[in-house]
Design brief:
By secondary structure, the protein is α+β, with helices and mostly antiparallel strands. The protein has two domains: 47 residues, no CATH class; 43 residues, no CATH class. Helix content is 68%, strand content 13%. The chain has four helices and two strands, in the order αββααα. A two-stranded antiparallel sheet has the order 1-2.
Length: 92
């Protein structure tokens, strides 16, 4: 069993038979892959506790703020929206 075959069996790759060989391609789009990687990274960082997450969140805000004011505004809007939703549910 090849590495490509293992990745196919795990659902990471798709394949199509072409003659006697297979043509492999990614099962997820680049956007889906990027989203999954980002979520995995955030889960690992946030799973370590607040002290570990704080520098990364700070860096994110600094980087976004330095590069794109509209994106920083969008981040602020998302945070405010999430806080309102949590408040409605009674979470803190």
């Amino acid at each position: 069993m090849t590495v490509l075959d293992r990745l196919y069996r795990k659902g990471v790759l798709e394949r199509e038979r072409q003659g006697r060989a297979y043509l492999y391609s990614a099962a997820a789009s680049p956007d889906q892959l990027q989203s999954a990687l980002a979520l995995g990274l955030l889960a690992r960082v946030l799973g370590r506790g607040r002290e570990a997450a704080s520098p990364i969140l700070s860096s994110l805000v600094d980087t976004v703020g330095a590069g794109d004011r509209e994106l920083l505004d969008e981040l602020d809007r998302l945070v405010r929206e999430k806080r309102r939703a949590l408040k409605r549910r009674g979470d803190r």
